[in-house]
Structures are given as structure tokens and as C-alpha cells.
């Protein structure tokens, strides 16, 4: 195999190793429950409240009132969470609209939580200063798992019994997410359309975002990445060109050593020759007398 092919092979192996080590060491992962906010609608169709939610909160699953959610949070806390979004007419008043989304580890657990929610859905909500009567079921078109109930409200401090509004509770599930909503309206006329519109919008949102959703956030530090790849380039260059440079250095060193040994041998040979010539030379006193 030619030296060029050897270099290409070493380059491929070195780059692949650098990528593997980079992915193992540099990228950082963390649990970010703020991502849960993307699972519920940001605006409600209820026109009696401001468009911007007064409360946006994400919590661990252990804060849920449903036992299946709490149990799931104990087993898999990084795959369970709650998101709550509420709208107020005034800061001192109770929420007029509120949505709660629950993320579960798997669809089976979500079905269990959904069943627990259905058991509570038809029960009148507990509201300060108002008494909720028996609920009436209403459908949520376009939301396969959606169900809703409307409850007439009366003033608990008055004996007139006249309705002062309605409360609307809805519930639906998509995959691993269960969403419930409560809207309190001051209109004495039944109008569940805001609750229906919110459920339809929320269902469409989850159909897009629930598949593959995760609380894990991946982050790649810029400085660490730059430093790593500077070092990696040096290492890759050494892996590709180092063997050739090392081999050339060894050959030159061997050639120098051979040259030194040849020079030393030649000097020794010449030295022995000079000593032999010197031994064969006649003594000075043996020469003829000068006249």
C-alpha cells in the first residue's frame, strides 16, 4: 500500500476518533422543565381575560394531585413534569382561565392519569364565593379524547339562586401528555366555545410537538469546543504525518550513525596503518654517516 493511502487511512481513523471523543466529552445535557411550556397553548380564546397569561409555571411531576403522576415522578423524574398557565382579570381575583398539562413517561401511564382526570371532570369545581351546580356534558369536535362539562354558577352569598356565570372544564390526551382546563365566565348564557377552541388548538399543538418530546436540553460550550478542536487538529496532523516524519528522522539518525561508524572504522584502519609503517621504518642511527 502506498504512503498516500496510508495517510488517508490514518486521517479517516483519527477524525472519526476525534468526533467520538468530542461527542462523549464536550456536549452537555441537562433537564430543562421550562420546555414544558411548549406543550400548552400560550393564548386562550376566552375574551374575558388578557391575552398574556399572568402565570407561567413548570414543576416536577411530584407536585401533581394525581397519584399515578406522583408515582411516575418517583420512578422517572426526568420524564415527568407539570406546566400551569393561568389568566386573571385582576391580580387580586382568582384565575378566570387556567390550563394544566402533565407529561408522563409513557402513553400507558398517561392513559391512567387521563382516566383519573375523567373521574373528576364531571364533579363541580370548588370556587371562592360561587357555587357550581350539576354539570352538563359538551363535546370537543376534532379532539378524539376530548370531553367537557359546563357548570352553572350562583353567588354563594346570595339566596336568589340566579346564575352569575358558568364554569367549563375540559380534558384531553395526546400520547404522553394529559391537558385539563378550567374557564370561569361571568356570562349567564352558556357558551362553551372558548373552551372548545382552546382544546382544539391545544390538541393540534400536541399532535405536532408530543412525538419525540423530551425535557433533556443539549448544549455545546463554544470555548470548550474551540479548544478541543485546536488540540484535535494537532493530534490528527500528528497521526497523519507523524509516522512519516518519525520514520524519516529514524532513517537520518541511522544514516548518521552508520557514517560515524564508517568514519571511526576508517580512522582506526588508517591509525593501524600508520603504526605499522612506523614499526617498519629503520632507526635513525642505522642510517649512513653523512660526509
Number of domains: 2
Overall SS class: alpha+beta
State the helical fraction: 40-55%
Output mean pLDDT: 83
Descriptive report:
The protein has helices at about 5-25, 65-75, 105-120, 195-210, 220-280, and strands at about 30, 55-60, 80-85, 95-105, 130, 135-140, 145-155, 165-175, 175-185, 215-220. The strands form 2 sheets. Strands 2, 3, 4, 5, 6, 7, 8 and 9 form an 8-stranded antiparallel β-sheet that branches. Strands 1-10 form a two-stranded antiparallel ribbon. Strand 7 (about 145-155) and strand 8 (about 165-175) form a beta hairpin. The mean pLDDT is about 85. It is of the alpha+beta class and about 290 residues long. It is rod-shaped and about 150 Å long. It has 2 domains: about 5-10 and about 220-275; about 30-220, Protein Transport Mog1p, Chain A (3-Layer(aba) Sandwich). Helix 1 (about 5-25) crosses helix 5 and helix 2 (about 65-75) runs antiparallel to helix 3.
